[in-house]
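[job 4471] stage=fold_predict status=RUNNING
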Amino acid sequence: MKLGEISEKSFIEGVLAKYLAGKPALSHLEFPDDASDFIPLAPRTVVSVDASSIASVKLPWRSMGDAAWSIASGAVSDHVAKASRPAYAFVSMGLAPDMSVEEAESILEGLNQAFTHYGVKWLGGDTNRSGDPWISVTIVGFTTAKKPPSRRGAREGDILVVTGRYGAMGYAVARGFEEAARQTWVVENTRRPLVDLRVGTVIALNYKSVHASMDVSDGLGYTLLEVARSSNVGLKIRRPPLLYKEVYEVCDGKLECIYELALNGGEEYGVVMAVDKDGLKKVLEDLDSYDVEYEVVGEVSSGGGLIVEGLASTRIYRWDQFAGYVKYI
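[job 4471] inference complete, writing structure tokens
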């Protein structure tokens, strides 16, 4: 059966409603109310909105549920980089009338599985008609950090710490999706990208030392450059971030190839942090205690742009929702 053959009300009440979490503790409003209320879980509230067409994240090896998971993860990632613990989600969707109810439900299942994994309660949202299906996720989170770090605060002398592991999506961008689909390590590490919530906890504990932070959703190279541009500083990269072991095999130790796969990609959902030297030891100790994957990759310098030690020049691409993968520098 197609969505166009049933009413929006039937879809919401008969299909979507079973995935909603119900009202939070001490709340008064719940489905089918058009709004939600809740008691703040920490002194500061953080809100984000992240939207994407399903087609733009639907890699050849991803199901509709996988694509929905990826979009939900991107919304969660925005909070982690700002020391926020994501708590509540509101999802708006534009779905095509000729989409089957089963396919629409696979999207709902992917969203629900992601929210359950991250401990986020899905409270509600809205449904719309669209020829090009899309999902918009609004997340409400909370933080104990008095000043969540922005992307603009990096200072000369800060140390660059990058969490997460890189190279799989970079391989897909560099070699093309047809070739990437034949690589088991690429498929397995990009099908449903994961966000490490523990990074947000570490940032919250060390917000005075983390001068700037930004999540890696559009490629590591772009994220580094955006932190540099926003902060009006330069960045010196002295070593790659943590990489999948297959990157070294594919690149045969060639530095240019290694950085091409590391810096270009997207949806790795690690975090770039510019950390004060005096607070670095504590940040690294906390990352270690939470068993977070990370690498100290370089430092913040004067001037502008990105300098990669050992390379004369660096090509950086980023994902653009209108233009696709475009050259950034």
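[job 4471] summary: Residues 153 and 229 are 11 Å apart (CA to CA).
[job 4471] exit 0
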